[in-house]
Amino acid sequence: MSFIDNLKSTMKNFAQKTSDVVEVQKLNLAILQEKDQVKKLYTKIGEEVYRQFLLGNDLGFNDKCNEIALLEAKIEEFENKIMKLKNTKKCDGCGSEISADAAFCPKCGTKAS
Ligand SMILES: [Zn+2]
Q1: What is the whole-number distance in angstroms between the Cα of residue 94 and the centre of ligand 1?
Q2: How far is CA 37 from CA 26, 31, 110, in A?
Q3: What's the CA gap between 58 and 4, in Å, rounded?
Q4: 25 C-alpha to ligand 1 centroid (Å)
Q5: Burial 4-35 (b: 16+ CB within 10 A, else e)
Q6: DSSP 8-state code for residue 78
Q7: Where do the domains of the chain lie?
Q8: How far is the CA of 100 from the centre of ligand 1 (A)?
Q9: Contact 93, 108 (CB under 8 A)
Q10: Among 16, 30, 77, 90, whose Cα sits 20 to 30 Å from the Cα of 102?
Q11: Whole-prediction pTM value?
Q12: How would DSSP label each residue in 3-66?
């Protein structure tokens, strides 16, 4: 093979390798996007299992659901502490955060407790 032919071949291989690298990057991105969709579906399944647990339906994940219930209680406790610090409370009707001394919710009109 002449020097020129050799150089042409090397450049052709380089171009092929570059396009392969781009293709691999595209495929890796596609994999990440698919994995993200799978994760979202796992989350939906988990939420449905927890919803069923709250309805009293045992789908065989009660230990994990009890853990979630404890974590949810902690979150509510922290939210209540924040509302106390901000001098607000949660509306019983719509769940909006309203002033602690409001007699009625300005959003839904529910009498504040
Ligand atoms: Zn309200």
Answers
A1: 4
A2: 17, 10, 40
A3: 74
A4: 50
A5: eeeeeeeeeeeeeeeeeeeeeeeeeeeeeeee
A6: H
A7: 3-60
A8: 13
A9: yes
A10: 77
A11: 0.69
A12: HHHHHHHHHHHHHHHHHHHHHHHHHHHHHHHHHHHHHHHHHHHHHHHHHHHHTT---S-HHHHH
Residue 83 structure tokens: 């509302």
Dist CA 107 CA 23 (whole Å): 53
- For the residues 75-80, what does the mean pLDDT come to? 95
Please give the distance, rounded to the nearest whole angstrom, from the Cα atom of residue 52 to the centre of ligand 1: 27
DSSP label at residue 104: B
Find, among 71, 98, 104, the residue nearest to 86 by Cα. Answer: 98
For the chain, the average pLDDT equals: 95
Residue 99 CA to ligand 1 center (angstroms) comes to 11
Residue bearing tokens 């020097």? 3
Residue in 97, 46, 81, 83 with CA at minimum distance from that of residue 67 = 46
The predicted model gives 42-57 an average pLDDT of: 97
